[in-house]
Amino acid sequence: VPNDCFWENTNPDWGILGETNDNPQLDRDDTDGFGPERTTLNVLPAGTNYLVGVRYSRNRGTRRVEAQIDVTIDGVSETLNAEWSADGPEYWIPIQILDSGEIVREDRFE
What we know:
By secondary structure, the protein is mostly beta strands. The protein has strands spanning about 25-30, 40, 50-55, 65-75, 75-85, 90-95, 105-110.
């Protein structure tokens, strides 16, 4: 997806074109599969909601996938964990972040 922030697109231009403060930045991309990774978004532009997703990209002989996300908005932190079969879905969509800063739990797999 062209606007996703991930290892191949670490700093997509979101929000106002050319404005860097409203863009996400993949600060740390973990390549050994054990994390952590870190993405920073300094500004939540009005009228834009964000889905946060975790992608399990390759099986290294494990039967279970474990993932944890830590989200901090305006100093308020929330941690979510998931575990699923390595043969199961590729994506975990734990939350949606609304432009108000509210965190809405999705906790679904795709």
